[in-house]
Amino acid sequence: MSKKWQITVPGSTANLGPGFDSIGLSLSLYLELTVSITDKWEIIHISDHLPKEFVLEEHLIYTIAKETAARFGKSLPPCRIEMKSELPFARGLGSSAAAIVAAIELANLVCDLNLTTQDKLNISSQIEGHPDNATASVLGGLTISVLDEDGVVDTIHVQDIDAAFVVFIPNVELKTSEARKVLPEQFDRGYAVQASANANMLAASLINKDYERIGRYMESDLFHEPFRAKLIPYFHEIHMAAKEAGAYGTALSGAGPTVISIIPIAISEQFVKQMKKQFPEHEIMLTRADHQGVSVIEVANDVLA
Known about the structure:
Layout: E1 4-14, E2 23-37, E3 42-45, H1 60-71, E4 79-85, H2 95-110, H3 117-128, H4 132-139, E5 142-147, E6 153-158, E7 164-169, H5 176-180, H6 189-208, H7 211-218, H8 225-228, H9 235-244, E8 249-252, E9 259-263, H10 268-278, E10 283-287, E11 295-299
Parallel strand pairs: 3-4
Antiparallel strand pairs: 1-2, 1-11, 2-4, 2-5, 5-6, 7-9, 7-10, 8-9
Helix pairs in contact: 1-2, 2-3, 2-4, 3-4, 6-7
């Protein structure tokens, strides 16, 4: 009997305000692949969040898995892949990073690459171009990371985030490449110093799990949110409403268009109910930090038949 694997990868939110391209938090929203080696390629999408039509040779899972195998001199065998996703595409919830991490794990399994966790961090972040989402999806929890000029990731990993998160997902897409076009090419020194100080305080507050300060500095970004806000439906209105309803803080999730609030667990149900009333045009979801990161289980073929 041929082997079959289930690969599960959490989505993520990046930046949390001023932690631009560095801070990532995995969320309990998942991409799941069921993979077996076969005699011909077949990728099946069984989720509303995945496109109904695609070209195999352009599929992100296919291209990244082949690229990863080739890095180590291996040839990727044909696979049958069933994909499920709770991550809407191009909404700022790490769907692309999750797919990249899943594809690397796929190549690792079917080609016996024996990749270390550090290998997975480096490869995924090199492909993404920044370590925030990918590192969070590999490790789970909160990550504060840097990708150096040699393509090596160094990360501080924080677990047990004692808060809930609410995501406000609009019915519009915004690709990161488009959201980057509105950013300035450079900042004045004084402005950059203040922006960096805010990012430092956010990172320190996250490590200390000082949720009041986390919320304050989430809302102090100067690197990207002032320029991207005009692209985001109801950005300022959500900020104000969330604060009035008891949120610690609110920020763009990645490049947007999703907005994310960090809230006390005790007010979760009441908060979501109130936000759904105020923003009926958004999909509003309550989630928590994922603490496992990418995971794999081997299953018998008849279990998932």
